[in-house]
């Protein structure tokens, strides 16, 4: 332990902030004359500037991927088990960058920020951003950090979609893409889940058409519901059964609508803690971005393999056996398109009972695969 | 990483710069060798986790998949060669696997242990299922559920309309002797075939 942190932790980290004054034109046609991104970095950029790894976060993630903000912080960053000196993504060899996405609520410009046109928070007027828009902003961040080409771009779920989009939009700026628990687009069922979540938020009386900041309230009920629904879909039926079963909190039925089963208590807790840290307008934006994701949209015949034909990255695609939100079959669609396009790709399906959330956990084989892959990247170009 | 003798022979059959799919690629040694020395590109298919990790270490493109599920991820004629070493006899439907190999590849290369070898025959005559160096498992725990002889294999090729382009019959030392060329079905312990659709 150093300063109370584990030796293989990146330890205390301080978020950084960068302002961009060059107008950003979004896929929707909307324009942002000015925006800011908050991000964290771990490790050092080497002299050749070829050891940088971009981490893209998922729906409810942020820039705090590893380490601690304060000595007393209860939980480290969301991908801390992966990133650190001696961890699979070894910060002694790699320079790791993780931004909070545009439209987020953890510090980057988003619905909570002030709209320069009105002096009020953007709220519902913040333009809908796409995965492609995020990639543009991340590319500008890379420019400013002096990173011409990423050694790797990596993400799970919606983060994996960004990694895939990077290879299409900037083929020469990505050496390796790690696409984990992702999909080439959402299924109808996925979109349906997102719509229920959005409906829960938008029908909350405290939503006020998205202008709830001015009313001094938050649509807590709706956001809580959205998170509870999401949480059920991120876990497998088996893991819910194993972890909570039909256990009763009081050991007996109360014949009422209070919390009785352990799973009810768990979901309420998840919903509650989410409301404290996340913004409802951002949640709406992020789910839209998921729904819109379609890297094949501009390719001939809407073909993913044609869209991937011009990519230059080496790909590692990983799925988890019990993930039904973004099932292994969806990852195989990406793999198949890459095979059709004659790209370098490896694919691993990890046995795990934890469902979609597996990508955040240190499943031993999963982490071994990542460690092996990053070791290979470090050995083939990126020098510490 | 060193090649098995058998893989060295296969490598000789493969043209420089071609595209190869290796079914049951193990640690990826054959593909790594072909890539480094012959400019060959391609993919390995493997089901075993340990082998997958070793392929990633080597830098071989590896796709985790169960061969008994077919090769539906691959388009027709997308490879110059589809290779399968010492795996055919463990397949649930070997003839379907061979068809799939020649659907996605222009040529196929397979190797398998010869059940017609005199040691096998002697053990069967003595009333026992054979256990040999190339077939070390006992009948109840063997992965080799579809054993065949060279003659059986060639009959299947004829029935399926496959044209055999090359054959090597090898003994345990992976040598091909004049006697073996005369009586391959009796003396070969391992058979190698290269074939295509007629």
Task: Kindly list the characteristics that best describe this protein.
heterodimer; A: 384 residues; alpha/beta; eight-stranded mixed β-sheet; two-stranded antiparallel sheet; B: 198 residues; 24% strand
Describe it for me?
- Chain A is of the alpha/beta class and 384 residues long.
- Chain A contains eleven helices and twelve strands.
- In chain A, the strands form three sheets. Chain A has an eight-stranded mixed beta sheet with strand order 1-4-8-5-9-10-11-12, sandwiched between helices. Chain A has a two-stranded antiparallel ribbon with strand order 2-3.
- Chain A is globular.
- Chain B has 198 residues and is an alpha/beta fold.
- Chain B has a seven-stranded mixed beta sheet with strand order 3-2-1-4-5-7-6, with helices on both faces.
- In chain B, β4 (79-85), α4 (94-104) and β5 (105-113) form a beta-alpha-beta unit.
- The mean pLDDT of chain B is 92.
- The A-B interface holds A 316, 332, 335-336, 339-340, 342, 344-349, 365, 368-369, 372-373, 375-376, 380 and B 41, 43, 49, 52-53, 55-57, 59-65, 73-75, 78.
Write the layout of secondary structure elements.
The complex is a heterodimer of chains A (384) and B (198).
Chain A: E1 16-20, E2 24-25, E3 31-32, E4 35-42, E5 52-56, E6 83-84, E7 89-90, E8 95-99, H1 131-145, E9 152-156, H2 158-169, E10 176-180, H3 188-202, H4 212-215, H5 220-234, H6 237-244, H7 262-277, H8 280-292, H9 304-308, E11 314-320, H10 328-340, E12 345-350, H11 364-379
Parallel strand pairs in A: 5-8, 5-9, 6-7, 9-10, 10-11, 11-12
Antiparallel strand pairs in A: 1-4, 2-3, 4-8
Helix pairs in contact in A: 1-2, 3-5, 3-8, 5-7
Chain B: H1 5-13, E1 19-23, H2 29-38, E2 41-46, H3 49-58, E3 62-64, E4 79-85, H4 94-104, E5 105-113, H5 118-125, H6 150-160, E6 162-170, H7 178-182, H8 184-187, E7 190-197
Order of helices and strands of chain A: EEEEEEEEHEHEHHHHHHHEHEH
Major sheet details of chain B: 7 strands, mixed
Rg estimate of chain A, integer Å: 21 Å
Strand content of chain A: 5-15%
In terms of per-residue confidence, which ranges of chain A show pLDDT below 50 for 5 or more consecutive residues?
A: none
Order of helices and strands of chain B: HEHEHEEHEHHEHHE
Mean pLDDT of chain B: 92
The largest sheet of chain A, given as strand count, sense and whether it forms a barrel, is: 8 strands, mixed
Structural class of chain A: alpha/beta
* Main sheet strand line-up of chain B: 3-2-1-4-5-7-6
| Number of helical regions of chain A | 11
> If you average the pLDDT of chain A, what whole number results?
95
Distance from first to last alpha carbon of chain B: 36 Å
Percent strand of chain B equals 15-25%
Order of strands, widest sheet of chain A: 1-4-8-5-9-10-11-12
- Point out poorly predicted stretches of chain B: none
Write down the overall geometry of chain B. globular
